[in-house]
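Hi all, a correction to my earlier message: I attached the wrong file for Polar amino acid ABC transporter, inner membrane subunit. Here's the right sequence:
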Amino acid sequence: MFVDWTYALRDWTTYLDAAWLSLKLSLAAFALAFALGLLGALARRSRHAVLRAPAAVYVEVVRNTPVLLQMFVAYFALPSAGLRLSPVQAGVLALGVNVGAYLTEIFRAGIQAVPGGQREAARVLALSPARTFVHVVLPQALRNVYPAVVNQLVQIILGSSLLSAISVPELTGTAMVINSRTLLTVQVFGIAAVLYLVLTNAVVLVAGLVGRVAFKPSLPTPARPRPLSAVRRLLPARTAGPVRKEA
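and the right structure:
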């Protein structure tokens, strides 16, 4: 059966605006998740139980409840507690809090993977704990977990489709509105799927370029081969044998 795409493409500017909104919301939620994940990882590694316990509860509760339920709590339940949020604010908050729990464990694993000798060397150099973390531990931890962090950003972009449940006009919500008006289900959601593919692959490409610049491999320069004459000069000089006395 032939599928006509021309009528569905008449709303191409609406699709692009919705895709741009999805990307902006995803980046805002990722910034919140990154901050929460880093703070949560530090709290989980703290020696004080007053910091470890709330961080552990946060991770367990958020990771074991649906993100859609968390969006409903942010949008419908918080106003009853006196905190009224717009649909966009509630969606960004829910996505950021959800992914922040996963980033907490990712960052914790990355920090634990840094060899303890690095911290000992920093202590010998009289670096404070804060400077040791910022200049020694954190760069290596980010290098270790960078692919996993980028994967969480992709998950946020895909998870932003759930924001349509609280009336955010992102890509999926816009596609549902267009579909209800045109009844071109295959074409409308096909265009939305293509745009999601473009968004996620573009983000992965840009993140890969950023990773190559930020985490350049520090490999030693291979030594140039020495000429044979230089090698001979490095060898120990031959000592003359005992002189034989003639009879």
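Sorry for the mix-up. The domain at 10-217 is CATH 1.10.3720.10 (MetI-like fold).
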